[in-house]
Amino acid sequence: MINVALSAMPPAVPSPTGGPPPIPSMKGLSPMAAHTWNSARAAKRIAARQKEVTTVEIKDYVRDTDLTALPRNKAYRVNGVHIYVDVQNLADMLASTQVEGETCHKRTLRFLNLHYRAVHRILTAVDAIEVDFHNQRLHAVVTKPYGDEAGRIHRAVAIAQLIIDVLKQTGEDGDEKIPSAEVRVGIDSGVALAVCNGRRGHAEPLFLGEPANLAAKRAGGGTEVGTYLTNTARSILGLADNVVEDKTPLTIKEVTASQEEAALSITADQVVKAWRSDLEASPIGKFSFAGHTPPFSNLDMEVLSPANSRRQDAISLYADIDGFTDFVAAGVCDDESAKNVVRTLHVLRGEMDAALHTDFGGRKVRFIGDCVHGVLGEGTAQTTDHEASVSTAILCAAGVRSSFEQAIAALEDDGTLDDGHGLGLAIGFDLGPIALTRLGVKGAMIRCAVGRSVLESEDQQRRCAGEETAIGQSAYDAGSPAVQAMFGSNRKRSGLVYDTAVDELADKADATAAAAKAVAKAAAAGGLLQSSPAPARDYAFADRRTEPTKPAGFA
Q1: CA pair distance 379, 59, nearest whole angstrom
Q2: How many CB atoms are closer than 10 A to CB 100?
């Protein structure tokens, strides 16, 4: 452990009195490593990702094609109806206590778990494709009846109403009252590309394209509950197709007509009855939290469960590829262009994940379409170093942007991307208490990260254009004076790449950036100092409980 710690120290300064040099300050440093980004290292990874998708196969989706284990170099063109369900009262759950402590996190996780188990049961029963459940948002796709687009939209509307009706009944009135979910649904229809989503044993299908994006926008287009169709989908059903989409929910009469047309084989009462029986047979365990010693890159999320969750102050970071939906829409129907879409996504996301995970000790929670959500931090399992965490997050965001730009250049050089592709990267992050776990039932468990900072970091990303990085208020307040000077009162910065970030912070005496710069300089000069990799688990600090504990037998 001593060698690892020393590798992260800034160089010693000789004593002016001629005695031994003072011990370098460790303020702002991870106990394990100084995190740096390196162009040569990124180039090697990017080349490896490009090689993995030299050959890409595009196929048309046919009846009951299995999309759960797609190889990274294959995609299916799918004509389907996309359903996005947005639970509107997640923020209310996180704000159910004045202080963001364990109580509100436990309530929120139970709230999500109850509702996810119900929705998972619905999608299985109606033979829809469950794509993603990221905290308060569910994405599903309806591909049946084949060859009947209007029939698929009617079926999607009926499924949406079934979800709304069921989630009205899946709260709890016990000691920890869990409310029912307030649901807003967005629906669109069209052609999208189904590709592999995820790496390192956590893979699932992902749908790229305009219908997925527009359905998500309708679900997130306001706070009023109900089902909202795009004008495209409305036109196919013969409804008025020049409405303000985000302010025009389907009427009761229109929903009833779709329910009659779809004639689903299951009712809300049947789902709720089966859901209650499932809860009795397989109760949701009590949520129990421990802290994780950074770096988060060595946190195995596939072993998390309600009884084995993590919770501590950390950074939540969202990095979203700007302009990707239009890029996909322009190429989805042409095989060669679709192949380049697959190549571009694979290389960009792979390198963004690597910069987060390998270079800065962060952990990807999940890919959400063309967006990466990750967590990172500095300190110990018991105490987060807030200032250092914010500085590392800035270096990480800048490193991710540098990796993105280098990958774009490589894709342009090999002909995958043409001029005018319009792709950029919007990044947002914030600091606060975050709970990490997995929800659901055995065999269908999903990763979950909740916290007010998780919602805020996504909001920060959304206020960015494709060249910008934004920092939340909590992270800004915890940052060093150099951080606050860098982002200013607007808390947003354009064109922040790694070299700019590390130089600017280090020049203003930010300890974390100074250490990273010293490590990089020494490594470039062939000196003894070099960036340390994440420690082997045998040498990592053990996970510690975050709540007070009492000896057995004591009240």
Answers
A1: 48
A2: 19
Residues 6+ apart with CB under 8 A from 130: 120, 123, 124, 138, 140
Residue 12 lies in a domain: no
pLDDT in tens, 321-332: 999 999 999 999
Q: 281, 308, 327 — which closes off a domain?
A: 281
Report field, pTM of the whole predicted structure over 0.85:
yes
Do 246 and 358 fall into the same domain? no
Which residues lie below 8 Å from residue 228, measured CB to CB, with a gap of 6+? Answer: 184, 185, 186, 187, 218, 219, 221, 245, 246, 248, 249, 250
Query: Are 470 and 428 within 8 A, CB to CB?
Result: yes
**Which among 410, 461, 454, 407 is positioned nearest to 433, based on CA atoms?**
454
- CA angle at residue 195 from 192 to 197, to 5 degrees? 125
The residue range of the domain holding 428 is: 287-524
Position 30 pLDDT exceeds 70:
no
Handedness of CA 529, 535, 538, 543 (dihedral sign): positive
**What CA–CA distance (Å, rounded) separates 416 from 533?**
32
User: Is residue 21 pLDDT above 60, yes or no?
Assistant: no
Inter-residue long-range contacts of 282-285, CB under 8 Å, 24+ positions, other chains counted: 282/441, 282/442, 284/110, 284/113, 284/114, 284/117
- Is 386 a member of any domain? yes
What confidence tens digit (pLDDT) does each residue in 198-249 have?
655 556 678 999 999 999 999 999 999 999 999 999 999 999 999 999 999 9
Structure tokens at 3: 């060698």
Contact 208, 328 (CB under 8 A): yes
Is residue 513 within 8 Å of residue 482, measured between CB atoms?
A: yes
- Predicted confidence (pLDDT) at residue 91 exceeds the cutoff of 50: yes
CA distance 312 to 289: 9
Number of domains in the chain: 2
Confidence of residue 174 (pLDDT cuts 50, 70, 90): low
Token look-up 């436990």 returns 106
